[in-house]
Amino acid sequence: LTNETGAVSSTNVVNASTLNVTAQGGINLSNTGNTISTTSLTNAGAGNITLVSGVDLTVSGVSQAGGGGTSVSAGGNLTFNGTANAGASLAATTTLGGKLFTNNAVISSTGPVAITADQMALNGGSSISTTGGTPSVTLTSETASVQIGINEADGAGVLGLTAAELATINVGTTVGNLLQIGDAAHTGDIVNGGGSVTVTAP
Predict the structure, then answer these.
(1) pLDDT along the chain (202 residues), means of 10
(2) 3-state SS of the chain?
(3) Beta strand 15-23 with 190-194: parallel, antiparallel or unpaired?
(4) What pTM, to 2 d.p., does this model score?
């Protein structure tokens, strides 16, 4: 889908195994019935990028140059590959409990970055960076627990974040070098399973 002069927007259901979208005025494909399996998203003008898929979704790239933010959500597992320049913010969300967020990408934003999933694989060679907001990781299931440490693993009702995974998150110097784990709605335990954990500033 390409609109070289304006926005790409649809309230109808979009079904596509691969959907590459290019716009000059924002992207809005937010119907929860969408079944999009693989996508790349490019916006060169004003406006936000919003894409919703009800199934497993792989994002092969994001280029948000128009000053807006980016929001991507999946009803299944959510995977980022390649390079994702998310613009003013990024919200990457798995909307159902027990689903996996995988990062193989270089993700960057000038504002806050929020990753929401019950399971996460923040793989070596990937990174999540923000230069103007607080990055956060939290869970879709509010009562699940988070365990952080050297060898913590995902499990039933547990989001395990290893030291190596947390080291892929680079916090912005303008927000006090903070990483937020959990949120106000999260009531599960957050446990340090052992060992030191370091996050870095770019």
Answers:
(1) 95 98 97 98 97 98 96 98 96 96 96 94 94 88 79 79 88 71 83 59 46
(2) CECCCCCEEECCCCEEEEEEEEECCCEEECCCCCEEEEEEEEECCCCCEEEEECCCEEEEEEEECCCCCEEEEECCCEEECCEEECCCCEEEEECCCCCEEEECCEEEECCCEEEECCEEEECCCCEEEECCCCEEEECCCCCCEEEEECCCCCECCEEEEEHHHHCCEECCHHHCCCCEECCCCCCCCEEEEECCCCCECC
(3) unpaired
(4) 0.92
